[in-house]
Amino acid sequence: MTTSTTFSDTAPVQPTNSATRVATASFIGTAIEFYDFYVYATAAALVIGPVFFPQTSGTAQMLSAFLTFGIAFLARPLGSALFGHFGDRIGRKSTLVASLLLMGVCTTLIGVLPGYDSIGAWAPILLCVLRFGQGLGLGGEWGGAALLATENAPKGKRAWYGMFPQLGPSIGFLAANGLFLTLAMSLNDEQFRSWGWRIPFLLSAALVMVGLYVRLKLHETPVFANAMARQERVKIPLVELFSQYWAPMLLGAGAMVVCYALFYISTVFSLSYGVSTLGYTRETFLGLLCFAVLFMAAATPLSAWASDRFGRKPVLIIGGVLAILSGFLMEPLLTQGSTWGVALFLCIELFLMGVTFAPMGALLPELFPTHVRYTGASAAYNLGGIVGASAAPFFAQKLVAMGGLSYVGGYVAAVLSLIAVLCLKETRHNDLNRVA
């Protein structure tokens, strides 16, 4: 239960944040999140194994490298609970600064971490610790960024403000892949394996410093400041969430699944299928993905505007139905032997990812009252990722073995998300200052 006192109209007016500062501060964390995902995934595939696990076979090196990659995903739910707790207890600003600082320190240390040849078994041990730390920071990042945006938004523009964290995936994807393509063209294989792979991690740290500079200059969001003035808080927000708000949390997580499924099947499964089965080089397919992700970036502001104009549910329902229909295009477009067909499919899927992802920056925060909003939005976001991100490529590969690419389309559509959205009430007019 929350405790509350009367909030007087004579309470001091809280200072406000400029729209530019809110946009920059909420965008940069999610951009770094997806940048980190692709930087580490590429490094894991190319050099992490030989540098940190050289005493094992090539296959064991690869497995060990991807195990360290997965550690961050295991840590993310813990990070959402940890940072959600403090975000709902002490404030959005300080918690966002802490999550970004943790992420930046761990990223920088990975970039300078000596390999197995220098410090022996400590190298893989420390790598695992740093990846766990990255996962903790990332687990609390999106929820805080979304709240920073929506709780500072003027009336009728919450989805538009909430769009800025949603731009992170497309920008992070382009930055990471563009950087690795540049390194591939500038360095030989020996240079890349020796020191070149460290450059993206160090550049990520520079981005974090910019983010910290912006976030330290922020004021607390007016919604949270008002809640603190009314002395609304709970001792353990996670307990309150699971006891009182488990239904919106699960429905919010279900609504997120289609976003993750569209993105990771388009970028992870399709990349693997395109290289191993269709015969594309990795560089060619990455180039197609870099082109296609521009459509996701274009769809994001369009969908955010529409969800402010017409509501979250209509936009998500239309996006979900189109995702179902687009699944039937997967087999003919990927298997016809045309590069343009492959590009068209990737553009369609990533455009729809932008359509379904953009409204979530407003929808998930709107599902919860202020005193559990950070915890609830983060939990829904990360739970949806467990199903849509970590499981989607695996099940896609299984479905291909069972019946071909036409079966994968049904999973990409993520009918679960459409059902979840239909079960939700429209949230566009929800008052973010509500107590329950």
UniProtKB/TrEMBL annotation:
For this UniProt entry, the molecular function terms from Gene Ontology, in alphabetical order, are: transmembrane transporter activity
How is this protein annotated for GO cellular component? plasma membrane
User: Where is coiled-coil annotated?
Assistant: none
- Chief place of localization: membrane
State its location(s).
Answer: Cell inner membrane
Membrane topology type, per the record?
Multi-pass membrane protein
Q: Which residues cross the membrane?
A: 37-53, 65-84, 96-116, 160-183, 195-214, 245-265, 285-306, 315-334, 340-364, 402-424
Tell me which residues make up the Major facilitator superfamily (MFS) profile domain: 22-428
**Keywords (A to Z) from UniProt:** Cell inner membrane, Cell membrane, Membrane, Transmembrane, Transmembrane helix, Transport
Entry-linked Gene3D superfamilies? MFS general substrate transporter like domains
Task: Cite the Pfam families for this sequence.
Answer: Sugar_tr
Spell out the NCBIfam families in the cross-references. 2A0106
- Its name, as the record gives it, is MHS family MFS transporter
Q: Which organism is it from?
A: Pseudomonas lini
